[in-house]
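Researcher: Going back to the complex we discussed earlier. I've cleaned up the inputs and rechecked each line, so this should be the final set. Can you rerun the prediction on the complete assembly and write out the structure?
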Amino acid sequence: SQTIHQWPATLVQPVGSPLSLECTVEGTSNPNLYWYRQAAGRGLQLLFYSVGIGQISSEVPQNLSASRPQDRQFILSSKKLLLSDSGFYLCAWSVGYPTDTQYFGPGTRLTVL
Amino acid sequence: SQQGEEDPQALSIQEGENATMNCSYKTSINNLQWYRQNSGRGLVHLILIRSNEREKHSGRLRVTLDTSKKSSSLLITASRAADTASYFCATDAKSSGDKLTFGTGTRLAVRP
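Model: Rerun complete. Updated structure for the full complex:
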């Protein structure tokens, strides 16, 4: 069966510090991968998605970046965090067409102070 | 931009009652999905309904889609305290390319 992992589960970082969130998927090959951010009590905002290794599409211009160094690994990064980067970050995967069913990881709660 | 908007924003019912949540969207879609999110957790897929379908069932869940009104509803019958969660609709709009657009969600509280 397929599983998706995210770490860390929670993170508290000072403004201006770097960020690296990792997501890995097991049990499937060549998945579509997604990074979303969810502000408190709000819906999901798509940040990045990838349909293959090295292929990254950015949805929102900001100080975040994403990379896909391996087929089932998706990394969200920042060189300098802003207060507005605080939120709940969710990784998801899907197979086939990108808008079919998506399967979400447990999320990372990021607080920037 | 926000494609799906859920209504109501919050709903509180007694265990055993039915819960109905609605989702309205703006542009033509290929499919519409409903997801559930327990507090502080990831989203879990519930149902996908395609634009040429009008109704789908899964256990205690019933989803309807009215493309002429650009709306969908999620009905949870005989609710349980464990159904307490936020429920989101997500649309695959023809104009949005290869991505889902999520609504802001309905927070459902089921009182035991």
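Model: Worth noting: Chain A has a mean pLDDT of 92.
Researcher: Good, that matches what I expected from the previous run.
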